[in-house]
Specification:
By secondary structure, this protein is an alpha/beta fold. The protein has 24 helices and 18 strands. It folds into 4 domains: 150 residues, Orthogonal Bundle (DNA polymerase, domain 1), CATH 1.10.150.110; 90 residues, 2-Layer Sandwich (Beta Polymerase, domain 2); 68 residues, 2-Layer Sandwich (Beta Polymerase, domain 3); 236 residues, Metal-dependent hydrolases (TIM Barrel, Alpha-Beta Barrel), CATH 3.20.20. The longest helix is centred in the N-terminal third of the chain and has 17 residues.
């Protein structure tokens, strides 16, 4: 099985985590994390590049050491350094990293201070109240860790949409080419674009005699067949993902797609409503009494129920059924509505491409404008810029803008919100920027009251425009910090601030619930990629999916505006 870019990236992430447990050099650790980010989004396959003997050091930020390790992964499946660390570090310490809010630094602290080596040790220390004595472990954090252990969240089998979607798409594309397959689509939570998914669901419409199921269970990437039947089979891939395939006759395809897309709550609500009308809806079709009245197309269900078609992203039983009956569903935002990207990084801080390279890549995507938002000085590990460097970058942008036609680079910065709520640049520099993106990057463990007060104070600065990744979550790695989002949304409305939907796949922050809440409050959203390379600009598609799950329309998102109108919106 060919090593994928994702496999190589995950190896580097694991190596960085274990090195952090060992208290290694933070810059070395960051180099591995940056490499993972570059590799994950790189358009060419590293396995094929290694086999072709290509010089990997020609890729920005990939030096000799990283190139050697990439070749080692491709040729042997792992890195010798990682093998050594796995032998030296207690296995349970690695597992603890999967418990929400327990990152490498906190796990190391527990190990060093309380000699916690196993999950049992952690459980015992929690029961005895010993963890309260460790600096930085407040009541809320202890509660999150306790819940994580109780619910065995370290055993979670959910995967990031970003990791699973390309695999599902590749399999679907391959299986569609098999003889006598009429249609084949991805269903389940992937189709609804949830930020994490448990497995891959596929539904196929086949004509009699199709060898699809035989190809499915004997696929080269299958590690184990869980169950096998003529119309339904389930397999585990070599990468650990479960894939379920249902085969139906072409006439049943629409009903089956609806059923296996879900969500279960949406389907139950629809079916109960149908029963009152004397209609039965299931995976085999739509029936009145015993007479089949539809099911070949998914839209049959909504048409027969005299409802507006409900897009898959909305099928979560959050009021979409009632609005569909009134034909009042929102017209969800689409990729083509986006005119610019308002959050990205260059080599001036921790990005992997130059200002010119990011601008050119954005132009190729059809954007009219971008905002370059390199980090500020407080974030030293990301090479944050001080006032002098920010001003120098602004001059660079002015020079570059003078050469560009029908495209504008906005002068901006991702400015750290300090613990007291002040911003990490002087007011005189903030006033020179076209827009200010503020973000929390440290002191995540403040109380809910303190964290909320901190962010509200920052938003009150008249130069503040966009609150970046507002809850600070990293999916599966870090829980959102404690914050009163109702108060933040209310203040954003009153102050004319914008909340960001950060499309970076590990963040997708705001989540869909808060997106919908912001929309209902009349607060505008900036949908941005947080790109650190030219390829990361494509993360915007994951943000679009999240925005659609949050009921957002074109009018709710500020970077759907032409530049002139967007500039007017920035005036507070």
């Amino acid at each position: 099985m060919q090593t994928s870019n994702r496999d190589i990236a995950e190896t580097f992430i694991k190596l960085a985590d274990l090195l952090e447990l060992e208290d290694e050099n933070p810059f070395r650790i960051r180099a591995y994390r940056n490499a993972a980010r570059i590799i994950r989004s790189y358009p060419k396959n590293f396995h094929e590049m290694v086999e072709a003997g290509e010089d990997l050091t020609q890729i920005h930020s990939i030096g000799d050491t990283l190139a050697k390790k990439i070749r080692e992964i491709v040729q042997t499946g792992k890195i010798s350094l990682l093998r050594r660390l796995e032998k030296e570090i207690p296995h349970d310490l690695e597992i603890m990293l999967k418990i929400p809010s327990l990152g490498p630094k906190r796990v190391r602290r527990l190990h060093e201070i309380l000699h916690i080596n196993t999950l049992h040790d952690l459980e015992t220390a929690l029961k005895k109240g010993e963890i309260e004595s460790v600096k930085g472990f407040g009541p809320k954090l202890i509660q999150i860790i306790t819940e994580g252990l109780k619910q065995k969240r370290y055993e979670t089998h959910r995967h990031h949409l970003y990791d699973v979607l390309p695999i599902a798409q590749a399999l679907a594309e391959e299986f569609r080419k098999i003889e006598r397959v009429d249609r084949l689509e991805i269903a389940g939570s992937i189709r609804r674009r949830r930020d994490t998914v448990k497995d891959i669901d596929m539904v196929a419409a086949c004509f009699s005699g199709s060898p699809l199921m035989e190809h499915f269970v004997s696929h080269q990437d299958v590690k184990r067949v869980v169950m096998e039947g003529p119309t339904r089979s389930s397999v585990i891939l070599k990468n650990g993902l479960q894939v379920d395939l249902r085969i139906v006759p072409p006439n049943d395809f629409g009903a089956a797609m609806h059923h296996f897309t879900g969500s279960r709550a949406h389907n139950i609500t629809l079916r109960k409503m149908a029963v009152k009308k004397g209609i039965k809806i299931n995976e085999y079709g739509i029936f009145r009494s015993d007479k089949r009245i539809g099911g070949e197309k998914e839209s049959d269900i909504y048409e027969i129920m005299k409802m507006q078609y409900i897009e898959p992203e909305l099928r979560e039983n959050r009021g979409e059924v009632a609005l569909a009956l009134q034909h009042s569903l929102p017209r969800l935002i689409e990729r083509g509505d986006i005119r610019g990207d308002l959050h990205m990084h260059t080599t001036c801080s921790d990005g992997n491409a130059t200002l010119e390279e990011m601008a050119e890549a954005a132009r190729v995507l059809g954007y009219e404008y971008i905002a370059v938002t390199d980090h500020t000085k407080h974030l030293t590990i990301a090479h944050g810029q001080d006032e002098e460097r920010v001003l120098q970058q602004m001059e660079m942008i002015d020079r570059l803008n003078a050469t560009l036609k029908d495209f504008t680079i906005l002068k901006s910065a991702e400015v750290d919100i300090l613990a007291d709520g002040t911003l990490d640049l002087s007011q005189s520099v903030l006033e020179k920027l076209d827009l200010v993106v503020g973000a929390v990057h440290y002191k995540f463990n403040l109380s809910k009251k303190e964290q909320t007060r901190r962010i509200l104070k920052a938003m009150e600065n008249p130069c503040f425009n966009i609150l970046s990744h507002p809850t600070g979550r990293l999916i599966g790695l870090r829980e959102p910090y404690e914050i009163d989002m109702d108060a933040i949304i209310k203040a954003a409305k009153e102050l004319g601030c914008i909340l960001e939907l950060n499309a970076q796949p590990d963040r997708l922050d705001l989540d869909d619930i808060y997106c919908k809440a912001a929309k209902e409050a009349g607060v505008r959203i900036a949908l941005s990629s947080d790109a650190h390379s030219v390829n990361d600009l494509h993360y915007i598609s994951y943000g679009i999916s999240q925005a659609r799950r949050g009921w957002l329309e074109k009018e709710d998102v500020v970077n759907t505006l032409p530049l002139t109108q967007f500039r007017k919106l920035l005036r507070r």
